[in-house]
Specification:
It is elongated, with a radius of gyration of 26 Å. The strands form 3 sheets. Strands 1, 2, 3 and 4 form a 4-stranded mixed beta sheet that branches. Strands 5, 6, 7 and 8 form a 4-stranded mixed beta sheet that branches. Strands 9, 10, 11 and 12 form a 4-stranded mixed beta sheet that branches. Strand 2 (35-42), helix 2 (45-56) and strand 3 form a beta-alpha-beta unit. It has 6 helices and 12 strands. It has 217 residues and is α/β, with parallel strands linked by helices. It folds into 3 domains: 5-70, Histidine-containing Protein, Chain: A, CATH 3.30.1340.30; 80-145, Histidine-containing Protein, Chain: A, CATH 3.30.1340; 154-216, GMP Synthetase, Chain A, domain 3.
Length: 217
């Protein structure tokens, strides 16, 4: 009885898993009309040969299109699934990022981050983690900061934070709040002062949006 492509696909994968000389984790299998296409990567030429032999052993295989590449351990791991795994590992190692709330998608080296976190800095940390992975062509950050009830004294907290900053003239920056939205205004003498004010505003609990209208004079 002739096997369907689906049955053949299952059997080839099972045989690759069974073959001790092959690490099947990075080998892709596709089947069309009994023709098996092997793709992905292996760590050596003998492993590549072993994968082909294992596939030929499977009953029903009519032909093999062999597209496996040999990639040594020291070669950079820049396939999309490898990039995604390294980003997830980095996020898991970063204590400040809740790894169960961040989703990662990689397409041709471009990373899209999604999900919801409690704090803005967690979104920025996830963005930083993804940006530092080799092979990443760019990052779109769609992580949202969850809306929480803003404390009634949010403005006072931000102003107090400004006053604690040695490199910021707190009196030169104005603060307006509307729920979790903070609007900054006023005038400072340097760009780093503007950055200090914005980071201080984002650090307040309940802030989900900061509109920075501070003028650098």
């Amino acid at each position: 009885m002739k096997k369907t492509d689906s049955q053949l696909h299952h059997d080839v994968i099972a045989e690759l898993e069974w073959e001790p000389a092959v690490d099947h984790a990075d080998i892709g299998v596709a089947v069309t009309d009994g023709v098996v296409t092997l793709s992905g990567y292996v760590k050596s030429c003998p492993e590549k040969v072993a994968a082909e032999k294992a596939t030929r052993r499977v009953a029903g295989v009519r032909a093999i299109a062999e597209e496996i590449k040999v990639r040594f351990a020291y070669d950079p791991k820049t396939d999309d699934h490898e990039i995604a795994k390294r980003i997830l590992d980095t996020i898991a190692w970063t204590v400040s990022i809740p790894d169960d709330k961040v989703m990662v998608k990689v397409e041709q080296g471009w990373v899209t981050l999604a999900g919801k976190v409690d704090w803005h800095f967690q979104s920025q940390e996830a963005l930083r983690a993804a940006s530092h992975i080799s092979g990443v062509m760019g990052v779109t950050n769609r992580i949202e900061v969850e809306q929480h009830p803003a404390p009634w004294d949010i403005k006072d907290r931000i102003v107090s934070a400004f006053r604690r900053q040695a490199n910021l003239d707190a009196g030169s920056v104005t603060v307006k709040t509307d729920g979790g939205t903070v609007t900054l205004g006023g005038t400072v003498t340097a760009w780093n002062e503007r950055g200090i004010a914005e980071r201080a505003a984002w650090s307040a609990p309940g802030v989900v949006r900061v509109e920075d209208h501070i003028i650098v004079n």
